[in-house]
Amino acid sequence: MMDETRVCQNCKKDFVIEPDDFLFYEKMKVPAPTFCSECRLVRRFAWRNEKSLYKRLCDKCGKGIVSVFSKETELTVYCGPCWWSDSWDGLNYGVDYDPNKLFLAQVRELFQRTPALANYTVTSTVENSDYVSMAAHLKNCYLTTYSDFNEDCLYASFILYSKGCVDNLMVDHCEFVYESVNCQKCYQTFFSVDSEGCHDVSFCRDCVGCSNCFGCSNLRNKRYHIFNEPYSKEEYEKKMRDMMPWTWANIRSMQDQSEKFWMRFPRKFMHERRNSSVSGDYIFNSKNVHDSYVCHHIENSRFCSYVTEARDCYDGTNYATGTELMYEFLQCGNDGSRIMCSWWACNGNRQAEYSMFPIGCKNVFGCVGLKKKEYCILNKQYDKESFDKLRKEIIVQMDKNPYIDKQGSIYKYGEFFPVELSPFGYNETTAQEFFPFREDEAREKGYGWKVFEKRDYKPTIQPNEIPDLIDAVQDSILQEIIACEHQGKCGEQCVGAFKIVQQELDFYRRMKLPLPLLCPNCRHHARLKWRNPATLTRRQCMCAGRHAGVYANTVTHVHGDAPCPNEFETSYAPNRQEIVYCEQCYNAEVV
Questions:
Q1: pLDDT digits (tens, 9 = 90+) for 221-241
Q2: What is the pTM of this model?
Q3: Which range of residues forms the domain containing residue 248?
């Protein structure tokens, strides 16, 4: 079997299907894709709304809830306790398959009628946690999304097993971490990026096993360093006292100095640790994983993003946890197997195809909101023989009479749901974070677009009226509506104004940090600049050996005086300013 080059239906660019890919598709009994991997990722992301949350009423009990589905979707939405309860049965919404109608359109119509879970949260595991989504096992958390097993965490996305952390992105097993990105096993770490096993560090990048460090980069197991220079304990503590107290003027100055300092040192071409044979970015503790992004503990997989604890999976986004043999899935996991082209299939599903919100089901095709059912199509129960026969008939019909979107792209069996069928506006979804469009561009592609309601917040205090020092902040700040510095002019879904909650104020006081001057959305977008994109480009190592280069090596590398010949796939695009090294050259320079 040889490589095969195809032209993507959507972007019209060439993409290659390799022999191992064909073997996987054969194992899954699906045809090879007709969209390139990036367009497939965009398609899944456009069905993923993590952070756009809306107040509405549960359509069953009438309780006020927070949901990822706005009222404009006209969906039936249940709160967590109602949706997870046995008080309703998805089979009651079942319909006969109509061979005269497109199958994907019938699935979308079924989704429109069947109760949807408000915010993908396992409510039985969530305690005293408001405004959360895609979450489980949370306690005392607030505005925390796509996160599990956390306590006392606020304003976060994709954090795991952490406690007492505020304003973070991609942190794991951390405590008292603030405004940091991609950090693991850190304690009392502020304004830091890509670090592991550190404590009492601030404004550090790519430091491992360090403590009492400030403004450092590429250090390993160091103590009492400032901008990579060693100090005695007494000297270090004196210099740190001289930098106090922390005000936003001080913090922004230190951020600027640190970022300029970081740029002087080489970056490894990808963010990874403890792997074997991987490619992509942000891959940890994995083996034989390629073209993937933000993955932990996975094996023999490709084109995955935000996937943990999985094996033999292709084109998966979000979740997994104990799954295998999955293809084109979104938010599926917990011991699933052979799940294909499905959304939020959880808790032991087996052989689920084109289904949404199935829980613990087996052999379901085009179903929505079923729990522990078997041999169902469009939420109607069949015996095994009838199910197998009708399933084959539908697959034949999907190939003969496929769904065709407004751009003319064809969706036969094996392709994920079209973006234009998503219940979300493109700008509500993760797709907008990674692959942003203007409204006119999105609408031209036939994608939905959410026109957000204008928030008529009336600030009671301006950012320049907030005390510089946290010790001067009174409890009365909890009653104030603070104007965001961006004033809604930043294009980052700025909400214009925000409030401080008691738990948050307690954290700032404990850590001697000033109150924020930006709303939560603007703070989130500021952190995003420290997360590399999900696209890869081919580059050569920038190590110039002993020749004049952008960085003077401190030791002789294995390639000697000549420039390094190594090439790699990296998420650092060629037009970026960072010094990007291959693994060998990078390791030689890390101290």
A1: 999 999 999 999 999 999 999
A2: 0.95
A3: 134-268
